[in-house]
Amino acid sequence: MSDNSLFPAPINVVSINPDDDLQRIYEVFRLTGMMIAKSISDDRLIELPLSPVFWDLILGKKMNIFDLERLDPNLFKVFADLQVLANRKRDIDKAVFFDQDHKQRQLNTLKTQSGARLEDLTLAFTLPGYDSIELKPNGKDEDVTLDNLQEYIDLVLHFLFHETVKIQIQAFKKGFNHIFPVDNLRPFAGNLELEDMICGTQRNEDEWANPAKLAEFITPAHGFHQTSPQFLYFVRFMSELAMEDRRKFLRFITGSPRLPNGGFGSLDPKITVVLKKPIIPAGASSLMSQEMMQAQHIDEILPSVMACQNYIKLPAYSSFEMLRDKFMKAINEGANNFTLS
């Protein structure tokens, strides 16, 4: 999917092994439906951004060629062009003021927007991208022409939205309904609130881009206060993160790449930032004070977190640049590290 959401890969129900592969696919989607329903029921986020098109099919929406744009924009452009061609062919056929020879001459001039004749595209009655899935018996041996173009378009849409995904949809609904009726989600159909409910939100640019707004959602404690330089560095760092780095940052501090529905204000508990002091190695020089030794080591350590509590342990770095470099290293290289601290 162009938006990185998930849609079932089409399966060939004619050739697939019903006792092995088909059963495995059915179980995967049944358990997926059950898992998502359970996450909604328990108000837990789960990183599984299902396509809005998939949800529309789950909830029984009738699909048309314009829904193809949400599924595959490039394929939609091709089929929108083919549909224009089919419409022009239909209009020529219906014209009552032209004789058959004139109609045929007009049909011979029909081309796609790219200037290609339909015959030059060498299309057959198979699903685009899946030559093994025939749209009709012996479809791979039947060429697409102006006379059967509309049939081809209709069959492609039927197979994409129904025939090749009906098993997955049935299994998903069965698993989901085991927890609570999937029809309860109908009020959310067609909008992004459903995705927010399951995966969390990414549409809170006004919070991310405003350091003063961010500071309202973060509690400095145990060594930091609202005017501490390092706390202000941290808030500035958050406000300057790019979209993908925001996801990494959130995964690092909360365990999820998205915020709950409602943004930072819905985090429970709130983000807390506390001072992290370096551990002085045993046997360090006794001639140097504890504070001086800590100051020497402060820029050498990385921030750490208690993700279950949204609790950040932040060293008192000497500069904003040092904080940014250490935090970026932590979220890129230490995201999968788990230690006791």
UniProtKB/TrEMBL annotation:
GO cellular component annotations of the record: nuclear speck
Alphabetical GO biological process terms: proteasome-mediated ubiquitin-dependent protein catabolic process; protein polyubiquitination
Active-site residues, Swiss-Prot/TrEMBL: C308
Classification lineage: Eukaryota, Sar, Alveolata, Ciliophora, Intramacronucleata
Superkingdom in the source lineage: Eukaryota
InterPro entries given in the database record: HECT_dom, Hect_E3_ubiquitin_ligase, HECTD1/TRIP12-like
UniProt keyword annotations, A-Z: Transferase, Ubl conjugation pathway
Keyword Transferase included in the entry's annotation: yes
Full protein name: HECT domain-containing protein
Gene Ontology molecular function: ubiquitin protein ligase activity
Domain HECT residues, every copy: 1-341
Gene3D superfamilies reported in the protein's UniProt record: Hect, E3 ligase catalytic domain (3.30.2160.10), Hect, E3 ligase catalytic domains (3.90.1750.10)
Keyword Transferase among record annotations: yes
